[in-house]
Every structure is written in structure tokens, then in C-alpha cells.
Amino acid sequence: MQGVQGVQKVQEVQRVRGAIGAALAVCVIAGAVSVSAQWQGYKTPGIPRLPDGSPNLSAPAPKTVDGKPDLSGIWQASRAVFDLAQAMKKGETVPFSADGKRIFSERRATESRDDPSARCLPTGLPVRALLRTPFKIIQTPPVMAILYESRTTFRQIMTDGRPLPEVDWPAWNGFSVGGWQGDTFVAETAGFNGKPWLDQAGYPASDALRITERFRRRDFGHMDMEMVIDDRKMYTKPWSIVGEFILQADTELLEFICEENEKDSAILDGK
Amino acid sequence: MKRLRLFAALCLALAPAAAGAHHSFAAQYDANQPITLDGVITKVEWMNPHTYFYVDVADDKGKVVNWAVEGGAPNVLYREGWKPTSLKKGDRVSILGSRAKNGSNQINATSFKLPDGRCVFAGTSGPGGTGTPNCTVGRR
User: Fold this and answer.
1) A170-204 pLDDT per residue, tens
2) Mind listing the pLDDT tens digit for each residue in B38-66?
3) pLDDT at position A213 over 60
């Protein structure tokens, strides 16, 4: 009997050990999956690394074969800005026209209740750049493509030498062309439809809007942007905002289908 | 099952990050009406543009009311370490947030206090949107 009990005990111990082993295996697998689920945590190839394996964001900016800086990568603003006044240079103020001031005041009075982006329509280019959602730049010779996680939108900045187009059907994102001034990439955009707000605070834009963006990748992990906003219907002169983007290593864009469960716009009350 | 939940809870990151938002916080919620809900999750909507968690909460007289809790965008929470299954029906939570201006049983969540006592950021763009979890203010 004792022998049988001994065998049973051994089998019990083996079962427990087996269960622990299986549990550990599950943990390891689950851990591995959680680390790289949907490529979040997957080691991005081509990124310089420090001895501990972390990205070396201070390494030199990469160059393309023609010697220009390569802006390619996933980027995100170093701080979220919903009100463009917070992204202006110190001491500068927004030079409203009378119409611009009136529209902005109306929007503030209702706490931006009527912002089109609250209804899942596209955000304006200025605030989209400064959200805490990443965007991916794919730099090729004829085009600088920007894939925004925000609303799963994209832009093409044509770099093949073409001029800005004649526009008879204005667009939410306008039409963009770009080129290099030294190590700074300069994009010019026009042909906007005047529908998106420049930001969530409610700075207005019209179909007269023109935007100039200057991007400078100062090292591997940091890129500076200056954006000049020129809309003579809403403002008396051009004004600018600045932003800093940080390279997002070992991640990937996620889908953002805003319409999937948008239920807030019907109950936005404002003041 | 409990172990899975514990694992999911352990997956929740503690490191904070700033939030995204698809609408103006102030158009819908009142930062001057902080509130804490203690209750049981009845439904989870892990969808853009915002997560929604529905929670049964007993009032002072014991009457159970279902509250809608708006969290941050799932993309933001996912990068924080949340998973679609981090909170599930039946989980008991304590949630700090701001009440809706229209007086409905709805809040915008700032932080979730988990059954194990940890406090995690909920992705709000309102007060607390800088990402520091805080589960101690405005208890209901």
C-alpha cells in the first residue's frame, strides 16, 4: 500500500511540477506576446542602440544616398498642445483679423462644442502635428509621405519639383509640395477648404490658408518643426508655432477609426 | 480566471503619459465636479475615439445606478500597457473622474484604482491629463 501511495505522491509532485512548468511557459509566451503585440516593443531595425539596447536618440541624424537628412521614422510631439497659443514663441500673440477674433470668441464661448473633429472629421494640420498621437514619415525621392495615426489620415508632400496645383476642389488637408533648404525640409501647403479648426481651442482658418512647415532633424531622435500660418481672412499677418518631435522607437502605428464608437458629439454641451 | 485577471492587471503600466482627445474636455465635463465611483464593471467598450466602461454603483440608499465612464483613446491606453481585456465585466474598481456638465450619470475618468490597490492613469485630457495617477480626491 505504501508503495502505491509513494507512486501516487510522486505522480502528484510531477503533476504539480508539470503545472508550474506549464504556467511558467504560458507566462513566458504571454509576456513575449505582450511585449511585441501589434509590434509594440518590436525592435525597429536600423536604430542605433546604447550598450543596454535602448535607442540612442542622440546619435547623428541619418542621411539618404543623396546626402539629405532622412526624416523617415515614427514621431510624436514632445508635449501635447490643444491650444496653439501654447506653441507660440514667447511674447508673440495671435494677430486676429476682426472676423478671426469674432469666430474664435464664439467658439470659446461654447467651449469648442462645434469642433468638426469632435464629430470625427479631420483635425487641422497644426494641432494634428502636436497631438500625443504618433505619425510616420516615409521619405522617398518623389514624395514625403506622412501617415497620421490620428483619424488614420495621410498627407503627401510632393518633392518631384511640381508646383502647387490650381485648386478647384479645396481639401481638408490641402495640397503640399516640398524641398530642401540646406538640412531643413520645407513644405508649402495650400488649397484648404476652410473647414477644419486649426486646433481644439478654435483658432479659425479659411480657404485662404497657406501653411509653411520647416522640419529639421537635429539628431537621430529629435526633430524641430516651425509652422507658419498665413490666412489673411482670419489674421492680419502670418504667425507661427513651434514644436519638437521625439522619435518613437520599437513601436508601430495603430489603427484609429474614430467613427467606430463616437457618441460624445451629441451630448457636448459647451457652457 | 482569477490568475488571468491578475496577469491582465499586472500588465497595466504605471508609467504615465499625456492624453489624446477627440473633443474638448470642457465642452462635456466639469473639472470642478470631481467624483469617485466605487462599483462593478458591467460592460467595456474598447473602441475609438474613447474607451467606455459602464459601472454599477450603489448610492447612499443602496440603489444601484449604472454610470458611463469615458476613458482615454484605446490607442493611448494601449501604449500605456492597458489591454482590451485589462478590465472586464465583474471587476470591482474605484474610478476618479469629472462629472458630465449635463448632470447625467457620466464621468470622464482620470484614474482607476484596481482591486489590488494600484492606481493607473485613465487617459483623460482634462485635469490630471499630464498623467499622474491620483485616486484620492473627490470621493463620492
Assistant:
1) 999 999 999 999 999 999 999 999 999 999 999 99
2) 999 999 999 999 999 999 999 889 999 99
3) yes
| Inter-chain CB proximity B18 and A79 less than 8 Å | yes
Same domain, yes or no: A80 and A143: yes
The DSSP 8-state label assigned to residue A171 in this structure reads B
Judge if A106 and A175 occupy the same domain.
yes
φ/ψ of residue A265, rounded to 5:
-60, -30
d(C-alpha A34, C-alpha A38), whole Å = 9
**How many domains is chain A built from?**
2
Is A132 part of the contact surface with chain B (CB cutoff 8 Å)?
yes
Which helix (H) or strand (E) segment holds residue A129: the answer is helix A125-129
Interface predicted TM-score of the whole assembly (ipTM), two decimals: 0.78
Tens of pLDDT, residues A149-173: 999 999 999 999 999 999 999 999 9
For residues A96 and B10, the model is more confident at A96
Of B11, B28, B45, the CB nearest to A269: B28
The answer to whether residues A97 and A195 belong to one domain is: yes
The model's confidence at residue B68, banded by pLDDT at 50, 70 and 90, is very high
List chain B residues with CB under 8 Å of A260: 47-49
Instruction: Name the residue among A159, A231, A160 with its Cα closest to residue A194.
Output: A231
Contact partners, residue B89, CB within 8 Å, separation at least 6: B41, B42, B43, B44
In a domain, A67, yes or no: no
Domain residue limits at A220: 73-267
Query: Average of pLDDT values for A105-123?
Result: 93
User: What residues of chain B lie within 8 A of the CB of A31, using their CB?
Assistant: none
**CATH C-level class of B2-121:** mainly beta
A267 touches chain B (CB under 8 A): yes
Task: Say which of B28, B45, B129 has its CB closest to residue A264.
Answer: B28
Helix axes B2-11, A2-36, angle to 10 degrees: 30
Same domain, A28 and A133: no
Q: Both A172 and A122 in a single domain? A: yes
